[in-house]
Design a protein that fits this description.
8 strands; two-stranded antiparallel sheet; globular
Length: 213
């Protein structure tokens, strides 16, 4: 670890999964990151293509330059060009013999705002085809706070009383999170290369939902 001057992380996920918010919290910043190409040159128009970063671009926050991030949006199909680009990047960087170029962790984000709250076929394909070797993939459930609204709605439909309302809402919210987490674990557990751990992001802290191994 003493030889690693910068910790390199690939963050993946669908649009509006809250990826930028996660990176800002990790780096204790509200600013946007500086973006550099693979040669170290600053990129001044990094989101010119469909509002998305190129996966090869390096994102660095001045508040915490010890982290280098790569950003990849989700993919609609497992056979598209975007999926193949992500797969090639992951396999190549995970197996790189250069400590400087190797990715050290992958954060795969799934937002709890999506109505189906599950993994897509293409995302399952990622966990079946992308062998990351010793690089851990951590599944991050984002925007977990939205489950509270579902909990309130369900309890109101059942005749929620004001007495112990907050306690009941918290219990129902936790129940819903555990339900969806179990569902996602079962789905991805069937894949060839499942996540190493599961984490939920709520408010301003990470709540560990599973064991890291």
């Amino acid at each position: 670890m003493n030889n690693i001057k910068q910790f390199r992380i690939l963050i993946m996920g669908r649009a509006n999964a809250g990826k930028t918010t996660i990176l800002q919290r990790i780096c204790n910043s509200t600013d946007q990151p500086e973006v550099f190409d693979g040669a170290g040159n600053k990129v001044y128009n990094p989101v010119a293509h469909h509002g998305q970063h190129e996966i090869e671009h390096e994102l660095v926050f001045q508040s915490n330059p010890g982290f280098v991030f790569h950003d990849s949006c989700g993919f609609d199909t497992a056979t598209g060009k975007q999926f193949n680009e992500v797969k090639s990047f992951v396999v190549e960087r995970a197996a790189s013999t250069s400590i400087k170029q190797r990715i050290h962790a992958i954060w795969f984000c799934i937002p709890m705002t999506d109505s189906h709250r599950t993994v897509t076929e293409a995302e399952q394909q990622f966990f079946n085809e992308c062998d990351t070797g010793h690089v851990p993939v951590i599944l991050v459930l984002t925007k977990v706070d939205t489950l509270k609204l579902d909990a309130i709605q369900e309890l109101e439909d059942g005749g929620l009383e004001m007495e112990r309302a907050e306690e009941k809402i918290a219990e129902k919210e936790k129940e819903k999170l555990e339900k969806w987490l179990t569902h996602i674990k079962v789905m991805l557990g069937k894949c060839k290369f499942p996540p190493r751990g599961y984490v939920s992001l709520k408010s301003e802290c990470f709540d560990t939902c599973g064991e890291f191994c």
